[in-house]
Design brief:
There is one protein chain. The protein is mainly alpha-helical and about 180 residues long. It is about 75% helix and about 10% strand. A 3-stranded antiparallel sheet has the order 1-2-3.
Length: about 180
């Protein structure tokens, strides 16, 4: 059997180059896969950053929404208190607000209705609340009966409501602004 060394050498060289070509192809595929993995990692990282930015944006919008809602509630309360004062204690303005806005009811401790106090017919009840009926008679719109969701009746000093809601500050600012206009 005769072996042609030249042919064998050529086949060996050809096999060597084929193996080298395949190794090069495998290396290129591995590089491509590595690059794809890096790109995917970057995309995942970018998506996580976008998600965090979106969450932060939603939190900011929620805070702004709460702020606007609180401002609207405060405005509604101030308007109702203005109307109550201008009408010499007509409770319909406060009751309308309490009926229409559950947030205001919660703000006022579950009060669902207010009623005027008659110092003559409610004198015993007023005394039980620790207030002199004469003081109520002298300031008929300062005190009201506040009825909560459970039907409990409490005596409420409107001055406490004015202070707790910031109405005094609002009223003072508004009065000062009105003076500037004149």
């Amino acid at each position: 059997m005769f072996i042609d060394i030249g042919t064998a050498f050529a086949k060996g060289v050809q096999g060597y180059y084929q193996g080298k070509d395949e190794a090069e192809k495998l290396r290129q595929i591995q590089e491509q896969l590595t690059m794809q993995k890096r790109m995917q990692d970057l995309q995942v990282q970018q998506a996580q950053q976008n998600l965090q930015a979106g969450i932060l944006q939603l939190q900011q919008l929620a805070a702004q929404t709460r702020q606007v809602k609180n401002q609207l509630i405060k405005q509604d309360v101030y308007q109702a208190l203005d109307a109550y004062n201008l009408s010499d204690g007509d409770n319909k303005f406060l009751n309308r607000l309490l009926q229409q806005n559950p947030d205001v009811r919660r703000l006022f401790g579950g009060v669902v209705r207010v009623e005027n106090i008659d110092p003559r017919t409610d004198a015993d009840w007023i005394r039980k609340q620790g207030i002199d009926p004469n003081m109520v008679a002298q300031n008929p719109f300062r005190f009201v009966k506040a009825i909560d969701e459970n039907g409990n009746v409490n005596l409420v000093d409107m001055n406490a409501i004015y202070g707790a809601t910031g109405y005094y500050n609002y009223k003072t600012q508004r009065d000062l602004e009105a003076l500037k206009v004149k």
